[in-house]
Design brief:
The structure is a single chain. This protein has 9 helices and 17 strands. The chain is an alpha/beta fold. A 7-stranded mixed β-sheet has the order 6-5-12-13-14-11-15, with helices on both faces. Helix 1 runs parallel beside helix 4 (298-313). The longest helix has 16 residues, at 298-313. The model is unreliable at 1-9 (pLDDT under 50). It comes from Streptomyces gossypii.
Length: 411
């Protein structure tokens, strides 16, 4: 069942245990987890090549030891660095964790090769038009590249397509960015260190901005300009900010740009529905997997898809929360404090990296710390502004915000 469908117009219904809509990080990861059990038939619906297909993108996360996707990792770094607005650099060793980078093309190639070896899996290149519950399951109506239609029926459907509008929220910021893959004329990068946040860039009136550098070789790197604010910039403005950062702050000298990435990620305390019908579920960013205060998504997707695969194997019908309630509550407070300007964003994040043990801080950003550890981390944050915000947040009204064009996080 591995090959693409080439059926006639209005082809007969096709049935599998699970249909996954969307071939991004969450769709591919869930397809991999489900077929690895060998007990579930899976159809993965991916958009055909063309203008509606998302360009290649980058995903990053931290992990320890070896993992399922090591063969697709483009680079990894044992050390992390943060530059404050004062120019001072803090270099952290989060051992045993390493920061890892995946390119979507390599990840897709790896997962597809595994699906090709599974008799119960196939990849269908088509555009999902509608997803709805039916008696005893759900169905997905698809349109193939040649305009032929197909109805897929399944016991369960997992939908990872971006939402047309975000749910109401008390606070909504955007993490928006543009990055260059640069090639310098001389060796300029330390391949052991990833610069997570470089606050030496000019700061906007609202929110915060930082540079982000992932060295791929001594003379190659992904160099990015990122803002946390309420609205994205124009491509021209991103290009100007990247040029200033590359030439005047990083002092790269002569370089060429081999490629670019651009995206927008929601940073919101909205409540994302994980289930939209008896047999229809949302996963990935559409299901709330993006961490509200950081934009990181890939690691939460792995936890979520592993839990779904385990639940289906055990006969349960659940989609677990990608993030715990306590983590979401803390994020809601931080987003509000940043949005109101009660805390200085660069000082806040720089302070955490300077004062909190790096391995603990990364576990905190991943939602893996205990209440006692979080209390200790909280002592290194601005007490008055954070307390005032924490008392205010529960009484704020959730309201609709303009829906951005959401890009897949490379965090």
């Amino acid at each position: 069942m591995n090959s693409q469908h080439r059926g006639a117009p209005d082809a007969p219904d096709e049935t599998s245990d699970v249909v996954i809509v969307g071939g991004g990080a969450s769709g591919l990861s869930l397809a991999h987890r489900l077929t690895a059990t060998g007990s579930t038939t899976v159809t993965l619906v991916e958009v055909p090549d063309g203008p509606r297909r998302v360009p290649e993108r980058t995903w990053c996360y931290w992990d320890q030891g070896t993992g399922d996707f090591d063969a697709a990792i483009s680079a990894s770094w044992p050390l992390l660095r943060v530059h404050g607005t004062d120019g001072a650099a803090t270099t952290a060793d989060p051992a045993p964790l390493r920061y890892r980078m995946l390119r979507s093309t390599a990840f897709e190639r790896l997962v597809h090769s595994r699906l090709d070896r599974s008799p119960g899996a196939r990849v269908l290149r088509a555009t999902a038009e509608t997803v709805r519950s039916t008696a005893g399951g759900a169905e997905v109506r698809c349109t193939a590249a040649d305009a032929r239609t197909l109805t897929l029926r399944a016991r369960r459907v997992f939908d990872s397509r971006p939402l047309r509008a975000l749910p109401p929220a008390r606070t909504q910021l955007l993490q928006h960015f543009r990055g260059w893959f640069v090639h310098t004329d001389a060796d300029r990068f330390d391949t052991a260190i990833a610069d997570l946040m470089d606050f030496r860039v000019p700061q906007p009136r609202h929110g915060l901005a930082f540079g982000y550098v992932l060295p791929l070789a001594p003379d190659r790197a992904l160099v990015e300009y990122t803002e946390f604010s309420r609205a994205p910039l124009t491509t021209t403005a991103y290009e100007a900010a990247l040029a200033h950062y590359s030439r005047h702050i990083l002092k790269l000298g002569a370089f060429t740009v081999d490629g670019a990435e651009q995206g927008v990620i929601p940073m919101t305390d909205a409540r994302f529905a994980r289930r939209t019908g008896p047999a229809v579920f949302r996963i990935g960013t559409a299901g709330g997997a993006t961490r509200p205060a950081t934009g990181y998504t890939f690691a939460a997707v792995q936890r979520q898809t592993q839990a779904i695969a385990a639940a289906l194997r055990d006969g349960r019908t659940t989609v677990p929360r990608p993030h715990g309630r306590r983590a979401l509550a803390m994020d809601a407070v931080l987003l509000r404090a940043l949005d109101t300007g009660r805390i200085d964003g660069p000082d806040f994040f720089t302070g955490l990296f300077r004062r909190v043990p790096p391995e603990r801080l990364l576990r905190f950003l991943d939602g893996g710390t205990s209440l006692r550890e979080e209390w200790g981390i909280g002592l290194h944050t601005p007490g008055g502004p954070m307390l005032r915000t924490a008392l205010e947040v529960p009484f704020l009204r959730r309201r609709s915000h303009p829906a951005p064009r959401i890009g897949e996080s490379h965090r």
